[in-house]
Amino acid sequence: MNVDRRTLLKRAGLASAGLLLGGSAGLASGRSGLFLPDRFGVSEALAGTLGQDVDLAGMPPAITPVERFYTVSKNTFADPVIDASRWRLRVTGSVASSLDLDLDAIRAFPTVRQYQTLECIDNQVGGDLISNAEWTGVRLADVLQRAGLRDSARRIVFQCEDDYSDSIPVEKALEATTLLAFEMNGQPLPPSHGFPVRVLSPNLYGIKNPKWVVEIRAVDGDYRGFWQRRGWTNDGIIKTMSRIDVPANGSSVAASAQRVGGIAFAGGRGVQGVEISADRGRSWSPTTLAAALSPLSWVLWTADWLPQGRTPTLTVRATDGTGAVQTADERPPLPDGSSGYHTVTLRTG
After folding, report:
1. Total count of domains within the chain
2. Three-class secondary structure of residue 161 per DSSP
C-alpha cells in the first residue's frame, strides 16, 4: 500500500521534518582490507576551519549547527530516550559469532571523522530537509568483520529502539564511509539525532540512516523495512539537487546587479558545476563553487545576476561529478525522492 510519508509524519504530530544522511565514495571493495584516513578526504587545515562559509546574508553555513540540523521521526508522541549505561548493540544473523557491545566497546574500534551531508527522501525541490555536519564514529565494516560476516549474507538490517527498521546491501555496509556514528560536530549525538549510536550510509537518503540502533542483523535474502512496507524505495540513492537560498522566493530585489547563491548536492558523486538561468532554462550561466569540505558534502555556490523585468525568475541546476546534469523532470518525493529544477520568482522596484 502506498502511503504518503509526509501525511504520516503530520499525523504523528511532528512540526518539523527532515532526514539524516547522504553520499558514498565507493572506496571499499570486498569484505576485508579496508583503510581510510581518519578525516575522509579533508586536510587537517581545512578540517579545523569554517573556510567554506560564504559571505552572503541568507546563505547556510558550511557546517550546520546541531540545533539547526533538520530531524524527522515516525514516532507519534516521543522519541526514545536511551540510558547509555544500559544500551547494548547486538550483532546477529548470518555471522560466525554474535556480538553484544556497549558504547565503550563501540568506541574501542578505530575512530573515523568525516564531513557528510544528510538529505531526507521527503525533501521537496527547494526544500530545507538537508544539512551538513562533521560526524565521528567507527566503520560498520570493522564491527561486521569482528562478528565474522558469512559469505551468504546479502543485506544488513538495522533494528531500532523505536521499532523502526531498514536495511542496506552488504556491499554498502562494507564501504569505508559507512559508519556507526556517536558524535555530531564534536559532541555526543543529541537524543533527536539517535543517541547513543546511529547509522550513516553515504549516498543514501535518510530512511537508510537509522537512529537509536539496537541490533544489526545480517540476512541471506531481501528485507523490507518500515517505509518500504508503505510504498517507499528500498534503494534510496540520492538524486542530484540544487537550491537557491538568496534571494528568497517572492522577495523584492533592486533592478541592479545582485549576488545570488545556494547549495547543491549529489551524494558521493560530488558536484562539478552549478548553473543559473534567468529565462526558465533556455540559456544557462556558470556559478562559482566554494570548495566542498569532503567528497560527501554539499557545495555552496554564488553568482552575479542582473534582474530583468518587473517579475524576474531565477532557476538553478547542478552537474554531478560524473558529468550527468540534474534532471528537469518534476517528480514528487514518493517513492524515491523528488526531482526537478528549483525556480524563484521575484519582484523588482
Report:
1. 2
2. coil
Measured in whole angstroms, the distance separating CA 20 from the mean position of its chain's CA atoms is 5
Residue 102 to residue 57: CA distance in whole angstroms: 44
Does some domain include residue 235?
no
Q: Which residues pair with 312 in a beta bridge?
A: none
Average pLDDT over residues 192-210: 98
Over residues 44-78, the pLDDT tens digits come to 333 334 457 999 999 999 999 999 999 999 998 89
- Cell triple for residue 170? 552488504
Amino acid at 329: D
Q: Which three three-digit cell numbers place residue 1?
A: 500500500
CA torsion angle 199 204 208 211 (round to 10): 40
**Distance, CA of 123 to CA of 134 (rounded, Å):** 21
Grid coordinates given for 31:
569484505
Residues 6+ apart with CB under 8 A from 105: none
Look up the domain containing 309 and give its range: 241-348
DSSP state of 45: H
Residues 52, 133, single domain; the answer is: yes
User: Which grid cell is 246?
Assistant: 538568496
CATH number of the domain at 42, please. 3.90.420.10
With beta carbons less than 8 A apart as the criterion, state whether 26 and 269 touch.
Answer: no
Q: What is the pTM of this model?
A: 0.87
The percent helix, strand, coil of the chain (3-state, each to 5) is 10, 35, 55
Instruction: Provide the 3-class DSSP secondary structure of residue 173.
Output: helix
Residue type, 306: L
Cα 266 to Cα 239: distance, rounded to the nearest angstrom: 6
